[in-house]
Amino acid sequence: MAASRKWAGAHWRFLLLAGVALIFGLLLRVGRPVRADQSSSQNAREIHLGRVRSDTLYAFDRVD
């Protein structure tokens, strides 16, 4: 009898975990869509680099 209670408890824990995973997945899927188009960018900047080389890596640091 104790073994069947053990399996029943594991069954309910699995169903609870699956339900939480399903809700979490649906929340991620239904999230607000994001569009990356040029028209909505209000703080676009131009950075003039001067002379650059194609075989060199460059990094930018945001300075406010």
Looking at this protein, list some descriptive labels.
1 helix; 64 residues; mainly alpha
Number of strands: 0
Structural class, judged by helices and strands? mainly alpha
N-to-C CA distance:
68 Å
Using the alpha-carbon principal axes, give the shape: elongated
**β-strand amount:** under 5%
- Report the average pLDDT across residues: 78
Describe the overall structure:
There is one protein chain. This protein has one helix and no strands. By secondary structure, it is mostly helical. The longest helix has 28 residues. The mean pLDDT is 78.
Topology:
Elements: H1 2-29
Please provide a brief summary of the model:
This protein is an all-alpha fold.
